[in-house]
Amino acid sequence: xxxxxxxxxxxxxxxxxxxxxxxxxxxxxxxxxxxxxxxxxxxxxxxxxxxxxxxxxxxxxxxxxxxxxxxxxxxxxxxxxxxxxxxxxxxxxxxxxxxxxxxxxxxxxxxxxxxxxxxxxxxxxxxxxxxxxxxxxxxxxxxxxxxxxxxxxxxxxxxxxxxxxxxxxxxxxxxxxxxxxxxxxxxxxxxxxxxxxxxxxxxxxxxxxxxxxxxxxxxxxxxxxxxxxx
Length: 230
What we know:
Blueprint: H1 3-25, E1 44-46, E2 51-52, E3 59-61, E4 90-94, E5 97-115, E6 122-124, E7 128-132, E8 142-146, E9 170-186, E10 189-191, E11 196-197, E12 199-202, E13 204-209, E14 217-219
Antiparallel strand pairs: 1-14, 2-13, 3-5, 4-12, 5-9, 5-13, 6-10, 7-8, 7-9, 10-11
């Protein structure tokens, strides 16, 4: 084994030790308890309603270009996010920003799952997820997730909890609402060192749904990338 490989292993081990301590140090006013590897409750839908609708769909945002990466990375299926390979990660502007997936047609939506920067534990502020048939989100807007407890993003106070990022992403159940566009807001992040980073990051947004064909229920299966920490 050469020196470069040994160095990479040592660095990776140190990062893992550092990461394992971080979740207990993250303290925000609206944080759910660390899940410690436990999955979120399963999302059960009628057969036919568990299809991945968002793969390779167009993505737009509140800013024209990201600081790093391309918008197309958010629907390409690659969710890996390792220390030496951040090719799937998109970094974009500071403050309250949004990214938006165009499903191309109005479809029944049953779940949305979001992966951000999951290399190390961190908490994203003011995560608000909305769906609509209006590209400008002026009419017919349905909010399906909102953990902005103090309305600092200006979209209204939410009752959902902030959460620690992991490779499992954040699955969000949707009650079969029909829409074409999915818009995801955020407003910077805190990491385990209690440092605030005003930039926004995202790795993948997946939207699941479709017309039911049977009343029988099936579980939506979210394919997770390799864990960077537990």
